[in-house]
Amino acid sequence: MKLSIMKLRSPIAPTAFVILAICGFTFGDDLPTKDQLIEHYRQSQAILGSHYVRTEMSVKNEIKNAGTGGKQYTVLDGVHEANAENRLFIDVEKKRFAIKRMSWGFVSPRAAIVSRADAKDDCWMFDGTKHYYYSNAGTKGSVIINDIEPKTNVLDEAYMNSGDQRAYGYFNEKLRIDAILEKATSASVRAKYDDDTHIVKCYVVDAKTPYGKYVVSFDPSHDYNICELEQTIEPGDIGEGGVYKTCKSHAHYNVKEFKQLGATWYPWQAHVSEQLTMTGTSPGMSSSIEVEIQRKELVINPDFDGLKAFSLSEIKDGAAVSIPGKADVPFTWRHGQAHADVDENVVRTIDQTVQPKNATTKSQ
User: Fold this and answer.
1) Of 24, 34, 177, 258, which is the most buried if we count CB atoms within 10 A?
2) How far apart are CA 305 and CA 260, in angstroms?
3) pLDDT over 80 (residue 1)
């Protein structure tokens, strides 16, 4: 059942003490610790459960001096604008997800500007057993089918690649913000107060971590969701591919609006700005990004079947199919599944060769 979205309301605090609604006690004049704030944040994130969310994004990216990395990159210089509509389906009980995205504008440096009518349509679905990556590019589109086990929690993988990852607490390629703050080598907590009422607006954690410096503001009137975050990365900090050596960046995330569903608050509209400067092999190259993120719909415990969230019907008949481990066999999508374009006996022979190899890999 779709829950109606209540109007945004102003937080009301009866006293100068900040009431911790989640745990039912007050901090009084004492500041919460970093660990207490992390715990409140985790509790607020755990409430969400299975859901569907539709988000619209606009991105403006200004790139300068890209040619320092090679003449072939000069095409990247300039101001580029792109838009996307993201639909994310999360089924917590069955541990499956689907990310469906339409993109238009400057979607690729090697392609013409894509109009809204010709939007690029991509889908990444994990049905609990297999990963399906589908794109409508070309006449029939293409699909990759992969049954390799994910290296991380499969739902975390969905959040990180949703396009709305910051609303789920992912400002790093691998770790959620609470996990990053837990690894802080130094941290302090301070409070920000409303100028008029002198009531606490948010608690701010200033932290130095192996993944960069973070200034994270938790909003006690909105279930301890993050209302603002600053991230500074310098050479020597840890990223997805290891230690950053040739770039530094500064990012600012600001929630402009929260919405309430039932008794729970969710980030609804946000702005992101990021400045990236390259050193090393591309000295002087820089990127300045502005992103507007607007949630349009959030449904708790949706009817996944009614929404066709995990249906493969969007894959067109005739789409080219790739299956890792069977690169020598051409497959085509027909009647809702992949069909080998060679004799089935050949496929069985390949299966008998590949399966023992996969089993050995997984056991390692």
Assistant:
1) 177
2) 26
3) no
